[in-house]
Each structure stands twice: as structure tokens, then as C-alpha cells.
Amino acid sequence: MEFINKFLWAIATIMLILSGLYYSFKLHFLHLDFKKIGNSLNNNNRDKKGISAFESLTVSLGACIGVGSLAGIALAIFKGGVGTIFWIIISCLVMAPNSIVENALAVIYHEKQGNNYIGGPSFYIEKGLGYKKLAIIYSILICIAYLFGFLTIQSNTISSFITTFYNIPNILIGVIISILSFLIIRKGIKGIAKFSSIFVPFMGMLYLFVSLFIIVKNINLIPNIFGDILKEAFNPSSIKYGLFSSIIIGIQRGIFASEVGSGTSAIASASSNINSPIKQGLVGVVGVYFTTFVICLSTALIILTSDYNPMNYNVVNGIEITGNALRYHLGSIGNFLLYFSLIAFSFSTIISGYYYVETNLKFIFKNISDNKVLLLKIITCILLMISTIISPTIIWNLSDLLVALLIIINVYAIYNLRHDVKSAYIDFKKQDF
Q1: What are phi and psi of 431, to 5 degrees?
Q2: Are 177 and 354 in contact (CB under 8 A)?
Q3: Residue 125 neighbours by CB under 8 Å, 6+ apart
Q4: Three-state SS for 49?
Q5: Average per-residue pLDDT for the chain
Q6: By the 8 A CB rule, do 98 and 260 touch?
């Protein structure tokens, strides 16, 4: 399993980098035009169906800003040294064009379903490439990865973390998580979008505010920290596993943090009522940059301005490092922030991730009845409850493998649909901004 996982990730990483470089030139480095990126959120060119561009952004952010934003960055620093932060940033900038493309294609090929839109990679693989079987495979992988992987892992993480400090039965926490999740997802994409548009910005801004407070408080350390990041990014003798390992860890962490190239953000973008595919693609880039430069970089600086020392840890999953850093800076308030962030980030992933599953189930089973969708919601909540009492190790490994497969399929698709992207880009340039 480990060999297969590494092999698939090597292929996926190479494909993402090549595709990102290709579209950087084809789209004339549009992902670096921050004025157009900012304007993409001010959308007056839309119809009354679906959800707004901003709502689609918050749904996407809700899915990717999970526990990995707290634990994953810490683990990357621990395994690869502070130089990994440089490679996370570089991978973000190189791969961001993939986000423009996959989100644009989602709008080009989305379908109306009642008062909503529905779409994503499965839809543009079938309708754009004509590969129905490959589209179904992608949808199946999404359903497995989220329903039996990411959603249940988030629930398990919440319960494990709470029971570490409080004598509360895991199953009771699972029941609470399930009930809260059902109350939101039962309303469909409108309810999920409404929840995400309020909760995700609040969650992100609170974390950003605390991060800025810590950074300003330790502003004298910041120049040296960035100097160390640049120095160690190219210094094979100063990191635990060598230069190549630092690059790989940084790139993979960047991919996991933003989910760029996997096509999952395109599922949220397909629900948007924006009429310009490329403009929606730029909305997707906002999500990539916010996750990387705000959430992940903030976590890194919180850790690196603390008394962090890798020699103090043996076997870690990352959350201990982030927790110790917050306590170092904020004392008991740091504990509260850690509890809130971990629970909030995980819960937002559950809500948005469920929508990804529902969308792809509707693709596999055309005209699925409302009763069967309701059954999916009930099954999801049962799995969230059960997952609080099982070990997540095997599921994590399986999820990593599935994400690599999703990236390979999606990048193959977005490259082969490059002519559609070119046409959409030409139309975009003709529009008056």
C-alpha cells in the first residue's frame, strides 16, 4: 500500500506541476492578476438560480480548511524543516492555474436541477470528453474518499480531542455531531451554502485575527524566521531528511491544504450562478490563496515564533505542536482557541464534504429520488457517529491514495479540455471589468 501510494503521488505531483506551468502561460499568468481576482467576488452578472460566487467559495473553503490546516503544517515543519514552508508557497503559486481551469470547466458544463446548479469533474469528463465510465469512476472515488474517509476522520478527530480533556463518551459526541450535521445538510445546497457563508468567514477571520495578534507581538522575530525559511529551503544539511524530502513534503502539503487539482472545489463552483466561467475560476483561486497564505502560513508563523524545538517530539501527528505553540503565546486562551479551531475546521469539512458526496451520487444515479437522498443523509450521520469509536489510521492511508487518483483523473481531463478553457478565456478578455 505504501509503495503504491508514493508511486501514485509522484505521478499526481508531476502532472499538477506540468499542468500548472502550461496554464500559467496559456492564461497569461492570470492567477497573479490580483485586481481581477478581487473583482471576481463582486459578481453582478448572474441569474437567480444556484448560489452566489461568494457562497460557492465558502463551501469550498469549508471543505479544505480542515484539521490538516492545524496539524498538517506542523507535521510538515517537523518532518521537513522550516524550508517546507517555502515549497508550500511555491507549489501554491505554480499550481493555482489548475484551480482557475477546473472551476471554469465546472461552470461551462454544470446542469440545472430545479432551482440549483449541479456539476464538477464527473460532468465535464462525461460531457466534455465523452468518457462516461471514467466520469463514474471519479464520482465513486469521491464518494468513498469523503463518505468513508475525510468526513469520518473529522468526526473521529473531534471526539478524540474532546475526550482527551473531558470525560465524555465518544459515542455521545458522535450523536451530537450527527444531529448538528443533519440539521444543516437536510436543507440541501441552499442550507449548506447559507451555513458556510456565515460560519466559514467567521472561523477564518477569527483565526486570522489571533494570528495577526501573535505575529505583531513577535514582529521582531519575523525577519529572521523568513530568512531561515529561505535558507533551509535550499540547504540539504539543515533539515531532517534532506533537501529532496523537504521539497516533496512542501509540495504535497500545499496540495492537501488547498485541494488544488483534485477537482473537489469545482463541485462547489458548479453550483454558482455566475455566468463567466473564468471569473468563477478566479473565485477558486481566492480559496487556494486564502487557505495557503492565511490559514497555513499563519499556523506556521504561530509555531515558529513559539519555543518550538523538534527535539522535544518523537512521534507526533502535528496537533501537539500547534497546541503547544498556541499555549506558549496565549496561555489558557490558547487552549480554548485550539479547541474551537479544531472543532470548527473539522465540522465545516463535514458539511461541505457531504455536499460533494451528494453531488456525485446524483451523477451516478440520474434522477435519484428525494427519499434516497434523505437516506444518504441518514447514512452519513450514522457513519459520523460510528467513526468516533474506531481507529482512523487505515482510512487515512486509503484517503491519501484516493486523492492521488482523483488528481490524476482530473488533471488528465482539464488538460484535454484545454480548447474549452481557451474559448472561455477569450470571452473573458472581451468582457468589460
Answers
A1: -75, 150
A2: no
A3: 131, 134, 135, 138, 409, 413
A4: coil
A5: 84
A6: yes
pLDDT tens by residue, 157-210: 778 777 766 788 888 888 888 898 898 888 777 788 788 888 888 888 888 899
Question: Could you tell me how many helices (H) and strands (E) the chain has, helices first?
Answer: 20, 2
Residue type at 333?
Answer: I
Compute the distance between CA of residue 212 and CA of residue 191 in angstroms, rounded to an integer: 32
d(Cα 39, Cα 99) in Å, to the nearest integer? Answer: 17
Rounded CA separation 351/63 (Å): 7
d(CA 271, CA 76): 33
| pTM listed for this prediction | 0.87
SS3 label, residue 351: helix
**How far is residue 199's CA from residue 220's CA, in Å, rounded to a whole number?**
33
d(CA 270, CA 106): 5
Is residue 379 a contact partner of residue 152, using CB atoms and an 8 Å limit? no
Provide the grid cell at 402. Answer: 484516493
Which of 278, 267, 260 shows the shortest CA–CA distance to 20?
Answer: 260
Across 217-222, average pLDDT: 94
- Residue 34's H or E segment, with its range, is helix 34-39
Report pLDDT digits (tens) over 76-128: 888 788 888 998 898 889 999 999 999 999 999 998 887 788 899 999 999 99
Q: How many CA atoms lie within 13 A of 80 on its CB side?
A: 26
What separation, in Å, do the N-terminal and C-terminal C-alpha atoms of the chain show? 50
Q: What is the CA radius of gyration of the chain?
A: 21
Of the candidates 397, 142, 180, which has an alpha carbon nearest to the alpha carbon of residue 265?
142
pLDDT in tens, 292-336: 888 889 999 999 999 888 777 765 567 778 888 988 999 888 878
Q: Alpha carbon 328 to chain centroid distance?
A: 28
Q: Return the exposure string of 150-189: e unless at least 16 CB atoms fall within 10 Å of the residue's CB, then b.
A: bbbbbbbbbbebbeeeeeeebeebbebbbeebbebbeebb
